[in-house]
Amino acid sequence: QVQLVESGGGLVQAGESLRLSCVVSSIDFTVNAIGWYRQPPGKERELVAGFNGDGRTNYVDAVKGRFTISRDNAKNTVYLQMNSLKPEDTAVYYCRAEARLGSTGYYFWGQGTQVTVSS
Questions:
Q1: Please, which residues have CB within 8 angstroms of residue 25's CB and are 6 or more apart in sequence?
Q2: Residues 6+ apart with CB under 8 A from 43
Q3: What is the spatial distance between Cα 28 and Cα 65, in angstroms, rounded to a whole number?
Q4: CA distance linking residue 41 with residue 54, whole number of Å
Q5: How many CB atoms lie within 10 A of CB 104?
Q6: Which of 28, 29, 46, 87 is most buried, by the most CB atoms less than 10 A from its CB?
Q7: Which residues contact 118 (CB under 8 A, 6 or more apart)?
Q8: Cα-Cα end-to-end distance for the chain
Q9: For residue 49, which of 76, 5, 83 has the smallest C-alpha distance?
Q10: If you write DSSP's letter for every residue of the chain in order, what string do you get?
C-alpha cells in the first residue's frame, strides 16, 4: 500500500506563495514516479509538475517559472513551491504516485488540498 498525505493549501491573494507537502509512505510497493495534479472547479484533473522514473522533472506550461517541485528523501516528502499565484491556480491539488508491486503497476492518490487564490 502507498499512502499520500497532502498539506499546505489555503486561501491567498494573487501574487502570494504557498508550499504544498506530500508525505509518502509505502509498504512493499516501489514508487517509480510522483507528481502533483490539480483539479479546478468544473474542470478535469491535470498534471502540474512531477518527477518521472529517472528523476527528471516536468511542468505544465502554465506554471513554468512559478512552481517548483522538490523532494526530501529523508523525510519521504515531495513539495510543490508555488510562487506568484494567480486566480486561475485555484484548484484542489493532489499528489499521485506511480508504484509497482512485482511486475504490476498501480496509481495512488492523496486526499487533496484546496488552494484558493483571490484576485
A1: 2, 3, 5, 76
A2: 91
A3: 36
A4: 32
A5: 8
A6: 29
A7: 11, 12, 13, 14, 87
A8: 40
A9: 83
A10: -EEEEEE--EEEETT--EEEEEEEEESS-EEEEEEEEEE-TTS--EEEEEE-TTS-EEE-GGGTTTEEEEEEGGGTEEEEEE-S--GGG-EEEEEEEEEEETTEEEEEE---EEEEEE-
> Cell match 483539479: residue?
39
The residue-averaged pLDDT of 91-99 equals: 97
pLDDT in tens, 27-83: 899 999 999 999 999 999 999 999 988 889 999 999 999 999 999 999 999 999 999
Burial profile 75-89: b = 16 or more Cβ within 10 angstroms, e = fewer: eebbbbebeebeeeb
Assess contact for 4 and 96: CB atoms under 8 A: yes
Residue with cell 506530500: 22
Residue 117: how many CB atoms within 10 A of its CB?
A: 20
One-letter amino acid of 63: V
